[in-house]
Write a structure and sequence with these properties.
Number of strands: 5
Structural class: alpha+beta
Order of helices and strands: HEEEHEEH
Radius of gyration: 14 Å
Largest sheet: 5 strands, antiparallel
Number of helices: 3
Distance between the termini: 27 Å
Length: 107
């Protein structure tokens, strides 16, 4: 029941984010402890990444952006109530946004 309630909550969040014009997706194999929110305006994208903290995660995510030649304008890392939060603002090509998002979700 708890698992279904969590899935329901994530689906409600997805529904709300789609209304707002952003995209919220679960990371790696439907891991409900991880999500990626992306909002794009022209060639500037905001990535909001939430996950359980693990060693080296920030480095791996930064390598994804570097691989796709995205210029990171700002990045903020925090941990709140055991949840890792990474906010990244970057200039990107629209076609690259999907690739970056997909790679981060597979981590």
């Amino acid at each position: 029941i708890k698992e279904l309630e969590m899935k329901m909550q994530k689906l409600e969040e997805l529904k709300e984010s789609m209304k707002e014009g952003s995209i919220l997706l679960a990371c790696g194999n439907n891991n409900m402890n991880c999500s990626v929110t992306v909002s794009v305006s022209a060639n500037v994208a905001f990535f909001g990444i939430q996950s359980l903290p693990r060693s080296g995660l920030v480095s791996v995510i930064m390598k994804v952006f570097c691989k796709h030649r995205a210029e990171i304008l700002a990045a903020n890392v925090s941990v709140n109530n055991g949840k890792f939060i990474l906010a990244i603002t970057a200039t990107v090509q629209n076609v690259v946004v999907e690739n970056i998002k997909r790679e981060i979700m597979s981590l």
